[in-house]
Amino acid sequence: MSLPLNWINLFINCISLGNHIYDSVTTEIGQYFSVQEATPFLRLITGNVRLEDSFDLSILNENPMIPQSSLAFYLEGLTREENLAAVVIMNGMTISLVGQNNNIIVMDSHLHGQLGAMSGSLNAGISDHHLVYGVFAVTKSKLKPKIALVKDYKSLDLNELKADMARAPWHIIGALEDIDDSVFVWKSMFKSILDNHIKKRIVKIRDRSLPWMNTEIRKAMNLRYKYLREAHVNPGNNELWCRYKQQRNKVKAMLRKAEAAYWINLFENANSPEDFWKVTNRILKKSKIKKFGPIQDNNGNIITASEQKADYFNDFFLNIALDLTRDLSPLPSDATNFIYKVCPTMSSFSVEWNIVQEIVQKSLNPNKAMGLDNISPRDLKLCESSVVQGLFEICMKSRADCQFPISWKKSQVAAVFKKGNRLDVNNYRPISLLSIPSKILERLVCRSFDNHLTSHSLLSDRQWGFRKGHSTESLLLHLTEVWKEALDDGLKGPPTSKTHCGRLFLF
């Protein structure tokens, strides 16, 4: 019995990419399914591809005139070209093609033993088609651990590090003419001293390792495995099996107790909402770092190459301000109308040694990410006052020359997805990872500006954001007092002078 016409469906991650009719006798494979049609979709694949439906050419496989190999050869070439993880074709009769790591294995009712498998067809008695089955071993690929170069702080002699930092000739930084040269010399000296004291080692980072695992539990697990092997040698010995089960239950109890203690300890040490949600997301297995998927340009084309996506995001973030302000009305040329009083100007900002030391010791967060210069805030915080002299020289030179180092202006930008369609670049926000030393200089300038604006009352009393000592909580407290006073005035005053006070709840 021949089946000259067959329906073919291509599914990628549960998305149907097409439904075609294939005449197995007269039609060539390229007439209904081409590489140009499949390539834009196949490149989006993150898992396996499944081709399913009936393109069985003959139930009994008895017609030698039917070119059964044309589809297999086409998909074999497509698999190799697109470097797919796996291609599985489920036919109405046989499993005709299985690809894993570009190794093509043909399996049908006449080929047994491939992959240690069984396949065939059975007459179920409920259809003119036979029931096709295929059984083959599926091995789960083991995730390769990540290899990382990390600093070994355990063997660090902190006193010697501070002593070498204090003895370094930081004074030569201020003698250089160019501030960029000063930053380069400071960075070279700082990293050289760090490399002499902090050793680096290569470690394997396993995502699935249990953080609550300890030596005691591992020894108990090894003993459990030992008892299991002894019980397998003497399967009729009930005493050995009881001993193994007792050890197995003990290991389970130890694992549960260790896991509970681990999470309880993390929640107890969560001193901020940020720490609390970090622990919560870990329990819920919500990964903060996700792989970047494809994006869509203005013409509707899908971009999958990493370099092209980076260039497109870069152009989008550079031009977003121009795109948003293009339709806005221009500001009036005469800006003097907004000036209602004359105040002293700020000609420079103050740089004091003790303020730089305070920023290094108290304001730097050791858990923050570093910039392109690979200078960690943890390393700066470890050195404390011994590293302040070099930073103080750079800040003094920046104020004297009225220049900001060019290398400190560069940052690593990460596009963070907010909500909506992941293909739309408008749903991403740029996060800049700046150099940590540049933040110290910025904080010095910011302090001087804040003191100048506050001392001359240049800020509005109604500004609650981006001000020291002000926040949304203080705004709510202020509004609450205003509402209470409005209610009191309405109750105490005459009926004609009552103040209307309403409430609006937003959900």
TrEMBL record:
Top-rank lineage group of the source organism: Eukaryota
Q: Which UniProt keywords apply?
A: Nucleotidyltransferase, RNA-directed DNA polymerase, Transferase
Query: GO molecular function terms here?
Result: RNA-directed DNA polymerase activity
The name under which this protein is listed is RNA-directed DNA polymerase from transposon BS
